[in-house]
């Protein structure tokens, strides 16, 4: 990038780059003008200006008093297409991916950090196996094995008559029925693979504008995994970054940082942070192979169990050989998942082609062999009870998830002891809590799917139904919901009490400010108005206590899950039948089981209904889009089938725009982010070279940078990272309100040391009651319309006044700035 020298402020234009928050916004709303024009971008994300401002840089006198407004609209990345409503079914995968990013930041604990990332990836792998097993439970166990093998069930359904054992046709043998319907869960795995690959190409394949590149086909050192935040000692998670003398260009350096810059970049500022192609491709191959192997194991396990008691030695040996192949395949998949994490120190365009191509192909070949093996003729074989191995499989999955999440909690606790970040949620255990919540969501969806289909098929109990463990899991759902009422009631009482205590503070605050402006004499108190303002502040503070609700749910889920596994394992019967003739206990257990089955079935139907409504209703799609705005900010580092990361498109977009505009014009730029837009803005600023970063002002409002991201993701948005960001930008100002449930202060000092980044809380409402200037009551805005506050324009003007314009060297020599960028 060309060098720049300061010139008077009037020599260059000023640009305010607006980035909207959750829920999206139209260019017309952001720019305050019904006539807008797109100047760059596509239908997913684009830059807009007011009509007539396309060439505003060539007419600086027209914008001497106000900056040129430019809006970056990215809402279509999360809520533009109706098909994205189906992403609701991927919520467990998304939550597991969030757990990867929630670890505490600790210096020097390389092995523990590596262990944390490995355990999260194992949790994510177990979820893929669980969801595939749920599909197998419905298609192979309930339909092919139980219903098709029971005349009372298959006789009432014409669509299953071809596979019914009572028909005596070619497909009536259990092995052939399993082979035929195994195509459906295998197709689900293929669909997940396709969606992951397609969404990566559409959302996450954007090249970063700067950074050293390792191209596809190059050799070079193995990076290992870079899952940590930055390490000031010069060492990352899997090896040294060059902690001695500075190299001409470190792997994690950015052009413009200069050879003298020895400090390692923050994680979000590394060249490869927003480009995870290599890891996502590896994980996608491993999870696809795991899905195929799960389907294959379900078919092979039941068939091999029958052949052990049969007369054919060849079939017995074939079954045993296939089971051994499945064990080897599982070990290979686990090895691929745990061996490599993220590589962030450089832009890495390589692919592990052996893993990406061979692993799913080999697993598919094993599945084909299993289907051929199961399709071999076995006269006299009948299906009874539940599918062989189904109960053992679900039990093994649940036990594995419990053990891994406990180990994850131990690793997080060790990291937190070294990090000692006092504002981390749950004492640094937010990641394990999220992982356990992901497992719970997966279990609810699995049980809901199985029980719903079992109810549709059996009705009067014609078939045994799903495995016993799923019934026990259903029985603990009412217990969990009942226990959850206690902390919710306590929270409601505390919020009510906080609102009452806040009333006096609200009146004192507005009385001091409005006595001279009422127009009706002395300031007058309005109890109803005061109570509304105080209640809004108290409700907004609930965000800070939500973490403890998540922690309570996670602990209760772990304990009740252990009870469900123990009950299913110990009794081998459904809860309603496990208590013998104990009278009241049996009745209570049976009621809990049926109520839980109804609840998880209702939850599953609710997911489907919400997705269908979102397909037809744009407002519902917008609501679902808000969920993805928060949940899919982070790259897919743990689960490749999670909804795609929009920031891997949005952050490079903003970085490219700021880099090219400042170099081409030498003007002043304020990047102005609201809500989630402030997180995108900060992430984009981190990606800028030092020469550009020092010429940018950052204006955030309604920002969750510290309140949510700093507490839930301390390794990336903790106090050290935010303080460093404040020191790297030219100037930064943050606006917030007490009534905002999302935004809050960032709690760091400004770079000049003269003031904090946070301004004093904006008043909401701006005016307490009626006055000469405000004859009608002002609304409570909460998280919205920060730009309507009169202080917003003053703060923006102050930021622009503090920035100096720069003219590129070529511009000073030839009189024309050199255009750069795309």
UniProtKB/TrEMBL annotation:
Keywords: Membrane, Transmembrane, Transmembrane helix. The chain crosses the membrane at residues 85-103, 115-135, 178-195, 285-304, 324-342, 354-376, 396-415, 427-454, 474-493, 546-571, 591-611. Coiled coil: none annotated. It comes from the Bacteria. Residues 204-237 are annotated as: Disordered. SUPFAM superfamilies: alpha/beta-Hydrolases. InterPro entries: AB_hydrolase_fold (IPR029058). Residues 215-230 have a biased composition (Acidic residues). This is Integral membrane protein. It comes from Streptomyces jumonjinensis. The lineage of its organism: Bacteria, Bacillati, Actinomycetota, Actinomycetes, Kitasatosporales.
